[in-house]
Amino acid sequence: MNQKDNAFFKRWQATHSRGRTRYLFVTGVLYWGLPMFAVMTFFVSPPKQMSPSALLLSAIVWFLGGLLFGYMMWIVGERRYSRLAHDDRRGDGDRVA
Description:
By secondary structure, this protein is mostly helical. The protein is built from 3 helices and no strands. The longest helix is centred in the last third of the chain and has 39 residues, at 52-90. The mean pLDDT is 90.
């Protein structure tokens, strides 16, 4: 396992131990969904007058989008972690990801 893979492996062990639900909400909703909501709602197409229902709809869309983003990133991280763990057990630690 090279240095980059080893660093990822250790980081993902800590992430995995905190759980998927926390990862979905922190990485997906807080770090991706909330900024996207703010940028897309208020800066990209700023409404002259946005109704509360339109604002709520936008918040719901970006919340769900954040959950989906977080879930996809969780799957990617889990696959890489599993592959590295499997390669390390087989003794193929020098393989580049």
